[in-house]
Amino acid sequence: MSMHGADSGPPMRGRLAGGMQKVIPSPRQPLPLATTERESKPAGATRNPTRTTARHAAIPGRGDRRLYAIDGLRLLAALVVAAHHYAGTWRVNQPDNAIWGRPVSDIMPTWFRFSAYGWIGVEIFFVISGFVICMSCWGRTPRQFFTSRVIRLYPAYWFAIVFTSACLVAMPGVWKQHRPREVLLNFTMLQSGSRVSNVDGVYWTLWSELRFYLLFMAVVVTGLTYRKVVVFCCLWGAAAMIAPAAGFRPATLIINPEGAWYFIAGLALYLMYRFGQDLLLWGILGMAWLMGQLELGHRIDTIERVSSWRGSVLIFTVFLLGMVAISLGYTDRIRWKWLVTAGALTYPFYLMHYLVGTTVINRLRDTMDARLLVVSVIAGFLVLSWLVHKFVEAPLARLLKRGLDTSFARLRNASSMS
Q1: C-beta of residue 145 within 8 angstroms of C-beta of residue 137
Q2: Residue 55's beta-bridge partner residues?
Q3: How large is the average pLDDT for residues 214-235?
Q4: Is 276 left (phi over 0), alpha (psi -120 to 50) or beta?
Q5: Which residues lie below 8 Å from residue 243, measured CB to CB, with a gap of 6+?
Q6: CB of 361 within 8 A of CB of 86?
Q7: Does residue 367 contact residue 360 with C-beta atoms inside 8 Å?
Q8: How far apart are CA 67 and CA 335, in angstroms?
């Protein structure tokens, strides 16, 4: 999801193999598909001008530049998801629902019509996650990748479990409380694999994220290059189409066909950002859009049931075009410092907003205007998210990083001694 932040990877530097020199085009011009050189041959040999060695050159400065627009999109996605949960789901539009007591479309019809599409924020998270994970992994080792994911995912998540569980005990009657053993297993973030319910329903996205990390680790281990990521996108996409049709459940579980094409779109967009556009990347992105619209329709029919396919596809398309603008450098001038804070708030906000937020709405629904109540609850969770980021997430992340670095150093030393 990428509600998760990521550090930018170091810029691509160094010489190409065999002494070939890179041809780096101006960032203002479209990048050619590849730089080419004739292969060297012994003196007197006939040169074949049709044989070339192709290399993609990174656009200068693209490897270590913070993308403020991505931070803003992350928070926007989290806000529309929260608005959907509070005022746009099929559940809250039922008579005698536990949150509002009557259909929310009767209380605030305009808000309901717009927030009914907020669930698309989750798909937006997945696309952004593919982009930022590829960016944060470039030039990093598997150990660094593992450490960065642990310190980014777990501190806020652990706090969210404690916070949500405590609030459900303090304010019973709206949501079912989980058994202690289920709550404890949730701390692993692997509960979905053990068929144990999530403490909060929004955690389901983390299961998709974890499977993406597992698959992408195979590429990180070998060292990220343009070619390897493209091959990974093609193979993953093919597997996402074949595994469900073949009825092979173990492969389907790992491949995650429901979310695969959103992550693939993010990976292609990052390659477009780092290396420039080409027909192959546009083809991958186009295929991801086509498969994504199919998945959007399936989700509307089976889960959401409150929004239209045309509207959902339109919103998703506009978002992808916005990501294309970021990838082509049109938003590089956006450098508003507050967007960094916005990006930092996204993950804890997403983790905490649903069960506790709807429970608060249930308690306060008769005390103020419904629209003001929704805005107030969202604002309250933004403040709480800032406090969690500053006083829980950041300190715990530093402690975890030191501990993991020490552990990996001991493991490396033990291996060398043996």
Answers
A1: yes
A2: 35
A3: 95
A4: left
A5: 251, 252, 255, 257
A6: yes
A7: no
A8: 8
pTM of the model: 0.86
* C-alpha–C-alpha distance, residues 127 and 42, integer Å: 48
On the CB side of 209, CA atoms within 13 Å amount to: 30
Chain segment 235-245, per-residue pLDDT in tens: 999 999 998 88
Q: CA angle, corner 277, sides to 18 and 26, nearest 5?
A: 70
Quick check: helix, strand or coil at residue 35? strand
Nearest to 206, CA basis, from 153, 249, 252: 153
Q: Which two tokens stand for residue 25?
A: 């085009």
Q: 3-class SS at 254?
A: helix
Task: Compute the radius of gyration of the chain from its Cα atoms.
Answer: 23
Phi, then psi, of 98 in degrees rounded to 5: -70, -15
Which has more pLDDT, 26 or 147?
147
Helical ranges in 256-393 per DSSP H: 257-275, 279-299, 309-327, 338-364, 370-388
Distance from C-alpha of 84 to C-alpha of 111, rounded to nearest angstrom: 9
- 106's CB contacts (< 8 A; 6+ apart) are none
